[in-house]
Design brief:
The protein has helices at 12-23, 41-50, 70-73, 75-96, 133-153, 177-191, 210-219, 238-249, 253-256, 286-302; strands spanning 2-7, 26-31, 57-60, 101-105, 157-162, 164-166, 195-198, 204-209, 226-230, 234-237, 257-260, 269-270. By secondary structure, the chain is of the alpha/beta class. The chain has two domains: 2-164 and 207-230, Rossmann fold; 168-206 and 233-302, Alpha-Beta Complex (UDP-galactose 4-epimerase, domain 1).
């Protein structure tokens, strides 16, 4: 059986990816902050004391970030913690298991959306949005680190750049826009309290269903030294997503929604150019995916 290190394995992506990796015959070993804190290299080395063998893959999902305005208000904290996390996992890779394929997760905010397109070859061009600059640049630095390991030591890697992941099983504290919309609109259905959305609702965003992202990562993990956009072309304005959720919940958009234009909105347009390799991939229908997400959320509330 092949073996993989997974960082950030208890997060949303990790909780969906790990079971599928193990179904495919890859045993997963987690580096987590409680036992092997990646911001502390000396502590993280203990992972290889406990598991003294080489690995076939490293799936690096760990990152210090949150949705909303967290990146804007924690630029310094994010620079320090993410640089430590990324440098230390690369150092561990080099020193203990250099033959492993390193599978990294990037972020769509690495792109400068003012350039007009988001082809993978443009990921280091321009400047990311100012409110996301520190976090975005740590991900760019991660990519440069992977390329450096390739150039000097012939080490192998891939990086996947997802649009906003969505689907059942999201975490209670996950404030990505789609979950914020679901919570607020669902709350209107229960209480009649209007859902207050940030901005004017014209910001364009993209979603990719969690199962689709996991399948694409696993199916393409054995490519070498490639960047893959995980874009689904499920692109809509915030207002459009809110309307669709209202339709699914059978409530009036005009009655349920109010916009607060004084709030943070980030990039006005944020979606990825689909990788040409995925042209024939059948992405989950957006309405079906949102229906499944709401159904899971409804059930989770019943179990509280």
């Amino acid at each position: 059986m092949k073996k993989a290190i997974v960082t950030g394995g208890t997060g949303y992506l990790g909780s969906h990816l790990i079971p599928k990796l193990e179904e495919s015959g890859i045993k997963c070993y987690l580096i987590n902050s409680e036992k092997f804190n990646l911001t502390n290299y000396t502590q993280a080395v203990n992972f290889f004391v406990e598991f003294p063998f080489t690995f076939d893959y490293i799936f690096h999902l760990a990152a210090d970030t949150k949705a909303g305005d967290y990146c804007m208000t924690h630029q310094g904290d994010q620079w320090i913690s993410n640089q430590l996390i990324n440098t230390n996992i690369i150092r561990l890779w080099k020193n203990f298991t250099s033959d492993a394929k390193f599978i990294a997760m990037g972020t769509s905010c690495m792109y400068d959306f003012n350039l007009g397109n988001t082809y993978e070859e443009n990921i280091l061009k321009g400047m990311p949005h100012s409110s996301l600059l520190s976090y975005a640049m740590t991900k760019r630095m991660l990519l440069i680190g992977l390329k450096a390991m390739q150039d000097q030591f012939d080490m192998k890697w891939n990086m996947f750049i997802p649009s906003t992941l969505y689907g059942p099983g999201f975490k209670e504290n996950d404030n990505h826009f789609i979950y914020d919309l679901i919570r607020k609109i669902y709350n209107f259905k229960l209480t009649g309290e209007k859902a207050v959305l940030w901005g004017n609702g014209n910001q364009m965003r993209e979603l990719i269903y969690i199962d689709d992202a996991v399948k694409l990562i696993i199916d393409n993990k054995n490519e070498e030294n490639q960047i893959f956009n995980l874009g689904s072309e499920c692109v809509m304005s915030i207002k459009g997503f809110a309307q669709l959720l209202c339709d699914i919940l059978n409530i009036s958009f005009d009655e349920a929604i109010r916009f607060d234009t004084t709030k943070y909105v980030g990039d006005k347009i944020k979606y990825l150019t689909k990788n040409s390799r995925f042209e024939k991939f059948k992405f989950t229908d957006l309405k079906f995916g949102l229906f499944e997400t709401i159904k899971w959320f409804d059930k989770s509330l019943e179990n509280e």
